[in-house]
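Sanity check

After download, print the first record. It should look like this:
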Amino acid sequence: MNSYKRPVAWMGALLAAGFACGVAAQSYPTKTVRISSAYSTGTGADLLARLVAEKLSRWWGQGVVVEARPGGNGVPAIEAVKKSVPDGHDILVAGGGHLVISPILFRDLPYDTERDFAPVAVLLQAPSMVAVSANGPYNSLSDIINAAKNKPGSVTFATLYIGSTQDLGGVMVELVSKTQMLHVAFKENSQIFSAMINGDVGWTLTTIGSGQAFYKAGRVKYVAHTNKTPLAAFPKVPTMEEAGLSGMDFNVWSGIVVARATPADRVAFISRDINRAMAEADYQEKAANLGVVSEPSTPASFGALIRSDIKVYADVIQRGKIKVEQ
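Expected structure tokens:
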């Protein structure tokens, strides 16, 4: 899986990528472009998608609107784009949970990511931070692992729901460390942090943006992160490998896809301009403030990321014997 890196020289990367935009793309768009979002209004991915939409609308001379459709684990947004005319006027923004994990866990989903969608661009990536209470018993990842080994099932891990990216990250920690922990599901992130600060649960995985307010207030601390390389913003926080667990390089991501039959040159055209939008300074500033990174990607590189994550999470789900009620 891709690593969270520092921003790079965007325009040089875009030129090197050699995007091919043919005749079909030149007549696009001819009407309002709708971006269906699997996220709630105001979340990080939603805010960045709206900033991209503003720029595309200005460049393309057509309206580009974002419609938040978060209900049903993103299925309404996903189905809307799956059933759309494959001409690029309907675009989907969704995450790894929607496009990778759910299709593995749920047999009756009305979509198949690789069959139904063409990857366009990665909107954002973010590492997961191992968070604990600032006043709790754990000061390192080793403290958590040792406690779990000394008394299996006694260490509690907080998650939003069983089968989420966050939850599978916790399962990965268990598999790699050969421990058994108790996963406790909550409805909201705020409940997770309140429970952890109160000592009701031991630890959680969180993105920088989700944990930012609690971290800045000194209520939680980070004892490791899942990125392969050190994070410039958190130089004292070790990588998982530095903290003693190898094979834990994974990121949370959100990406943009279109219906599978959309012409390849049009997909390339949309990808080029989305990358151009993400390269601009105001977008990069907002992404940094949200604790995420947006780097150049191509339909091919995003497709490779999806396929890689499918293999990784399918293995975790099988080895962890994860099942959800359907």
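If your output differs, re-run the checksum step. Summary of this record's structure: Residues 10-125+252-319 form a domain with the D-Maltodextrin-Binding Protein; domain 2 fold (CATH 3.40.190.150).
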